[in-house]
Amino acid sequence: MAYGPVHDETSERVGDSGTWATDWSMIYRAVHGAEEPSAVAWDQLARRYWPAIYAYIRSSGRDIHQASDLTQSFVCDVMVGRQLLGSADPARGRFRTLLLTALKNYLVEQHRYATRRKRAPKDGRLVELDREEASAIEVPSGASPEAVFAAQWSATLVRRVLDQVRADCDNEALATHWAIFESRVVRPMLLGEAPTRYALLVRRLGLKDVAQAANMMVTVKRRFARALFEAVSGTVGDPSEVDDELRALLRALERSA
Amino acid sequence: MNEEKRARLSEALQWALDTSADPSMASADWLAMDIDERQPSAVALLTDPAVSLSQLRKAKSVYKTMRMVGETSADRRLGARLYAAAIAAALARHGRRISRQSDAALRRAFKALLEDEDIPAALREMAGKALCVLEEMP
Q1: CA distance to partner chain A, nearest, from residue B30 (Å)
Q2: Domain count, chain A
Q3: Which of B10, B16, B26 lies nearest to residue A253, judging by beta carbons?
Q4: CB contact under 8 A, A214 and B34
Q5: In this structure, are A177 and A72 located in the same domain?
Q6: A52 touches B: beta carbon within 8 Å
Q7: Which of A140, A154, A225 shows the shortest C-beta gap to B16?
Q8: Does a structural domain hold residue A11?
Q9: Chain B: residue nearest A157 by CA?
Q10: Same domain, A122 and A175
Q11: Does A199 reach chain B within 8 Å, measured CB to CB?
């Protein structure tokens, strides 16, 4: 498979319930949790958001190396340094907006870069940016840094949801259902391939007929749509904002392209 | 993820957004889009005057399966209604029977569709037309 999980898909499972952490619940654990869960939550938060942070910084005129360093220093200084998350409050609205505002302010005060190591986590561990992954993030030249940030945020979120649904399908013996969804939706979406014809999938997967295959795909589509809504819900303060936020994220993908 | 992929991503996810408008119809609508990607919904497909007999046979087949394997009882119930609607559309639009069910069974299914107030009016109207055609058939 030419695409894979955005990150370690098992690492974001929370507790015994097996549910996925929302952004706000993860922030709460990072800030208020006991030492070990807290460190894990910091790590997850950083991994979840660095692509959007990096894309914004790159698009604001920095080269790959500067952008990588600044992304890492932003994560250490602002996210791990608790200046941002310690005061974050779901009632104040969308986490995406909060993060972007903090990032803009941070870039204005770049002198903090030199002091980032002083604010490293207690165990001295920093989130290591994968420079290869970072350099694979393409930054469109005509789009504003804000648009690039929103687009990368959306793309990362969608990939995370795909990872989640794939894992859920594996756990619930729905591997064949996932295979259909992957052939007809995921691969065309991510790799530009033509959707595999149902008739071919029926033969390949040993199904009864096209109607069965189509209904199996609906099962996964529904799970994907639900997971997407839940993922977006985790980033907004008010449930009534979910629909708007979702539409805004998809518009961001369109505008950046 | 590059620009082209992001554009595809956005385009490919429109269906997920449309779910929120009418979640109860989402599964049926996705099945309709599989049959004809230009159609935005099951109602649009089944009431389109230009719908082909081949498309209606496909619709009958997927909604028949939905009637049996739908995830929730609401899905299965909706599947049963849309299965009847596809057969009704074939009768009303093409004057053709695409089911081996008896006249009595078809009448019962069309009447149930006609009287179901949870079903969009355009489909119920289709059931009424099909009942008329059925009565006039030799």
Answers
A1: 7
A2: 2
A3: B10
A4: yes
A5: no
A6: no
A7: A225
A8: no
A9: B9
A10: no
A11: no
Among A116, A139, A162, which residue terminates a domain? A139
Range of the domain at A242: 140-257
ipTM over 0.85: yes
Pair (A181, A105) in one structural domain: no
Do residue A130 and residue A216 come from a single domain? no
Q: Is the pLDDT of residue A193 over 60?
A: yes
In-domain check, residue A162:
yes
Structural domains counted in chain B? 1
* Three-state secondary structure of chain B: CCHHHHHHHHHHCHHHHHHHHCHHHHHHHHHHHHHCCCCCCHHHHHHCCCCCHHHHHHHHHHHHHHHHHCCCHHHHHHHHHHHHHHHHHHHHHHCCCCCCCCHHHHHHHHHHHHHCCCCCHHHHHHHHHHHHHHHHCC
Cβ contact (<8 Å) for B61 and A243? no
Q: Does A32 touch chain B (CB under 8 A)?
A: no
Confidence (pTM): 0.75
Contact between A27 and A85 under an 8 Å Cβ cutoff? The reply is: yes
Confidence of residue B7 (pLDDT cuts 50, 70, 90): low
State which residues form the domain around B120. 25-136
Which residues of A are less than 8 Å from B65 in CB distance?
209, 211-212, 214-215
Residue A6 lies in a domain: no
Q: Is A162 exposed, middle or buried (0-12, 13-18, 19+ CB in 10 A)?
A: buried
Q: Do A155 and B65 touch (CB under 8 A)?
A: no
Average pLDDT over residues B33-38: 92
Please check whether residues A27 and A107 belong to one and the same domain. Answer: yes
